[in-house]
Amino acid sequence: MCKSLRAAFSACGRREREQEEEEGAGKSREQQGHPGNSQRLGPSVSPSASQARPDPPSVTPAESQGCVLLDCVTLVPSLLPGRMWCRRLAWLLRGPCWQRGSSGRRWPWPRRDTRTEVSALARGHHTAPGALPCAWQLHGDHLELRYRNTLMRLDFVWLRDHCRSASCYNTKTNQRSLDTASVDLAIRPQAVRVDETTLFLTWPDGHVTRYGLEWLVKNSYEGQKKQVMHPRILWNAEIYRQAQVPSVDCRSFLETDEGLKEFLQNFLLYGIAFVENVTPTKEDTEILAKRISIIRETIYGRMWYFTSDFSRGDTAYTKLALDRHTDTTYFQEPCGIQVFHCLKHEGTGGRTLLVDGFHAAEQVLRQAPEQFELLSKVPLKHEYVEGVGGCHNHMIGVGPVLNVYPWNNELYLIRYNNYDRAVINTVPHDVVRRWYHAHRTLTTELRRPENELWVKLKPGKALFVDNWRVLHGREAFTGYRQLCGCYLTRDDVLNTARLLGLQA
């Protein structure tokens, strides 16, 4: 405790005793103690140091069971009358276990048990009167910190490892300098202090770590659970039509940041986006694609022509209808974005089908969460076997149908292709039947007519599809139909969006 607070407390104590003697109160004070293994908020706290205070009241063993979590406050003594200031100062220094009103009577705060206190905090209850912004408590291997509406449990090793001091983190390169393997796995801070905005930790070697409370909320596990990595608008056909999402003109897309940003915002929110007035050639489509990403080289080359000549061993190279699916499920990392541009069609049919896979999966999560979980955990093999002409390939990709971030259950990839799914031999028989039920539930949602968005592609209109989210297909067609397209690397598209200030 700083000298000024000690002096103020002593002065307040003398003034209070004198006034009580004048009033003839002469009443003994009942106190509650504080366990030696529990730390409280204050100017500076040492886990190994005693919690001695000036003029401490006597504490009986039966009373020394309390556990106090004191909220961060700003003292403004000039706004309080003398005696009230003394009372408030005593309350702040001794904690809410020993509180008295201006009448000299004890406030009716019950004795507190450590387990009760932690349980109450876990339920989001306040441990001191009033809606105060911050409270914390040290435990054996972690710091429990409540700031605003987030209760965080921060491991001591984690707190040391993520230190942003100049010796631990290079702000010029945004890279860690601290050797994580050098941190003692049993490390524990020697002192802890919290003010209105910052947590201060002093480690056994004297090193001081500072964390902004807002930074901790944003970067803690508990904070991440409340956040969405990729904001999206889930849609069915009616939702998308009512949104009236505009296409972006090719010149604006290629020559202005505003046009590019509008396109990327549409793409990030809906998983599809259109560019109009594109010259219907493969070369101009390639220029368009390179505006946002490096073109991914695959077994199909960089830019490909797409006709019904069965030049590749794939149903897509026919005039047959294609059910909804995602592409390259047989890659270990399926391609992120697919570009389609219809260069010519002399015939009928051939409309493109688009379905928001995340919207369908969300319905499964609501109706049958146990099936959603099964689809997100059972690993499946997808394969592509080709032996046409000079093309010989046998590719295998492994992964669940639904891929989620484990900390918040947010879906980031759907791997759905009934054409390319290989033999299911990665799970035992008692899981297989349950998986088939879950797959049927998802397929039913994907095939609901209200979820189907049908688009007629035409020369000059390029379509970008998020292959990790939106399933595509087509109806059968007649005549000669030629498309060109390519796959884009997902990381590069997201990087372009972030450079323009978008969350991606």
Q: Can you lay out the helices and strands and say which pair or pack?
A:
Blueprint: H1 3-23, H2 82-94, H3 114-122, E1 134-138, E2 142-147, E3 150-155, H4 156-161, E4 169-170, E5 175-176, E6 191-194, E7 198-202, E8 208-212, H5 213-219, H6 221-225, H7 237-243, E9 248-249, H8 250-255, H9 257-270, E10 272-276, H10 282-290, E11 304-306, E12 322-325, E13 337-346, E14 352-356, H11 357-367, H12 369-377, E15 380-388, E16 391-399, E17 402-405, E18 410-414, H13 429-446, E19 453-455, E20 462-466, E21 470-474, E22 480-488, H14 490-499
Parallel strand pairs: 9-10
Antiparallel strand pairs: 1-2, 2-3, 4-5, 6-7, 7-8, 10-20, 11-22, 12-21, 13-20, 13-22, 14-19, 14-21, 15-16, 17-18
Helix pairs in contact: 1-2, 11-12, 11-13, 12-13
Helix percentage range: 25-40%
Q: Could you give a short account of the major beta sheet? A: 6 strands, mixed
Q: For the largest beta sheet, what order do the strands appear in spatially?
A: 9-10-20-13-22-11
Strand proportion = 15-25%
Low-confidence stretches: 1-6, 22-131
Count every helix, treating DSSP H or I runs of 4 or more residues as helices.
14
Q: How many strands?
A: 22
Q: Tell me the radius of gyration.
A: 32 Å
Shape: globular
- Give the terminus-to-terminus CA distance: 47 Å
- Structural class call reads alpha+beta
Oligomer: single chain
Average residue pLDDT: 80
